[in-house]
C-alpha cells in the first residue's frame, strides 16, 4: 500500500506554524509497512483542496488529511473532498445530538457554529473523537485506483489527531498488514566527516542494497544515516542487520551511535559516556568558542561525573595567568597556533586535576583574519595521560556561529578518538588545513 498526506490550513503556509501532524502519521505508516510517497500542504480553499487530493490519489491508494474539520467558515476539508468525489455534505443529526449532549454535560452553551462539525461527507464512516468535538471520517472510493482509494480525515489539533490515529487508523492498517509486514529503521550517526566523504564511502552499501532505503541527513559536523528495511519480520530484520554492518565497515571509527532514532543521543553525551566508562575526566580551555564547549558538556545530565571545569581565556594575559601559557610561546607563535593550544590544553588539565584537557583558539570572524591565518582558522589540542598531545588545525567555512559550533564539534571528536583504542584522527583530514593551504 502507498500513502500520501495532506495538511490543510492557510496558517501552515506561513512562517509561524509547522505541520507536526504529518510526523505522527508517518510513524504509524512506517510501523505498519505502508510506503509514504508524498506530503503536501494546501490553504483553506475548496477548489485547491479538491485539486490537490485528486493529484495525490494518482500515486497512492491511502490519503490521510489533517485539519479543516473545525466549526469556522474556513474549515473546508469536507467540502473539498466532496467536490472531488461528486458527493454531498450534510449534517448528521444523530451526531449533532451527541455533540449537544456533550456540551450540556459540561454546563456549557453550544454555539450554533459547532453544527458544522457534525457535517458528514455522503458515504463516510464517522470516527469518534474522544479527545474533542469534531469526529474524523473515513471514506472509500472505487476510482481511480484498481484497489480503490481510502480517505481518512483527521482534526488538525495534534492531541485529537493522535487519539484518532490510535483508535481508528492504526487498527485499520493492522488488519490489512500482510504476514506481519512492516518497516524497521535504524539510525547511524557519524561525527566530523563531510557529507561528500560519507557519500563516497557508502557507495558499496548502495551497490549491495540499493539507495532507496538509505537516507542521508546532514548537519554541521555530523551526518545521520537512516537505514530502512521492509517486508515480513523474518526477512527484514536480518537485512537491516546486514545494512548496518556494511555501513559500520564503510565508515569505521567515525560512527558514534547506532540505534533507534528516538533513542539517539547527542554527540557530547556519547563522548561523556566514553569518559564515564573509563572513569576519567576532562577540563577545557577556550578562547574563540567563548565557553560553548563547556556548555555542551554540561548540557547532559550527570556530566559532573566526567566534566571537571574550564577556563574562558579570551585574552593573552589570561592564557598566561590562568593556564600558564609561556609568554615566549605567544610572542613567537601567536594565540592561534599549535604550541599555544597544546599549552592551553595542558594547563587546563593540570589546574583542574583532570585526565584530559582540551584547548581551542581560532579566528571566528568576520574580521581578524590574516593571509597566514584567514577567518575560519582554528587550532584544537587535547592533552592526556600520554606524553604527546593530539593537535588538529582546520579551516572551517561559514560565518562566526558556524565556525564556533564546528570548533566544539571537532574538539569533542579529537577527544573521542583518544578514548577509543586503536583510533586516530585520520578521518579528520578532509577538514584539515595543511600549512599554506585552506580547505573545507
Any chance you could write out the topology, listing elements then pairs?
Elements: E1 2-8, H1 21-31, E2 35-42, H2 46-56, E3 62-66, H3 77-85, E4 89-91, H4 93-105, E5 119-121, E6 125-127, E7 136-141, E8 149-154, H5 158-176, E9 182-191, H6 195-201, H7 203-209, E10 214-219, E11 222-231, H8 233-251, E12 255-259, H9 267-278, E13 282-286, H10 292-298, E14 307-312, H11 316-323, H12 327-333, H13 338-352, E15 356-362, E16 377-383, E17 390-395, H14 400-419
Parallel strand pairs: 1-2, 1-3, 3-8, 13-14, 13-15
Antiparallel strand pairs: 4-5, 6-7, 7-8, 9-11, 9-12, 10-11, 15-16, 16-17
Helix pairs in contact: 1-5, 2-3, 9-14
Structure description:
This protein starts with a strand and ends in a 21-residue tail after the last helix. It folds into three domains: 2-176, 3-Layer(aba) Sandwich (Molybdenum Cofactor Biosythetic Enzyme, Chain A); 182-263, Alpha-Beta Plaits; 278-431, CinA-like (Maf protein), CATH 3.90.950.20. α1 packs parallel to α5 and α9 (267-278) packs parallel to α14 (400-419). With 440 residues, the protein is α/β, with parallel strands linked by helices. It is built from 14 helices and 17 strands. The model is unreliable at 434-440 (pLDDT under 50).
